[in-house]
Write a structure and sequence with these properties.
Elements: E1 14-19, H1 27-39, E2 44-49, H2 59-77, E3 96-100
Parallel strand pairs: 1-2
Antiparallel strand pairs: 2-3
């Protein structure tokens, strides 16, 4: 099953995460998803992780991803994000890169 094929029917904001070294779902699939979201006028966020594969294994990346999920859901439901305070230091060394469909659509050749 792939959401990519039904993207035109999606009206909700999408959060996509991907490891840049994922052998099962290559990073280009995520870039294509973001590009298609943009084409269909659907907002989306892509969070990629350098040095990660199919899943997140580094603690700082794992914690950061769950922080991004919480932030994403709070925005969607109009809720205030919990202030993690000092706990954010636990994921300061994350390897994440965040891109929005409205701002970014990477092509096969790497051009933006």
């Amino acid at each position: 099953f792939s959401q990519f094929h039904d993207i035109a029917f999606s009206l909700a904001l999408n959060l996509v995460s991907s490891g840049e070294n994922d052998p099962r779902a290559p990073i280009q699939h995520s870039y294509n998803m973001l590009k298609e979201l943009k084409r269909c006028g659907v907002a989306g966020e892509l969070v990629t992780f350098t040095g990660e594969g199919h899943g997140i294994s580094k603690d700082e990346n794992f914690l950061y991803m769950y922080y991004r999920i919480e932030e994403f859901l709070c925005k969607q439901f109009g809720m205030e994000l919990f202030d993690a305070g000092e706990d954010t230091k636990k994921f300061e060394q994350n390897t994440a890169t965040v891109k929005w469909s409205a701002e970014y659509a990477k092509t096969e050749d790497g051009a933006v």
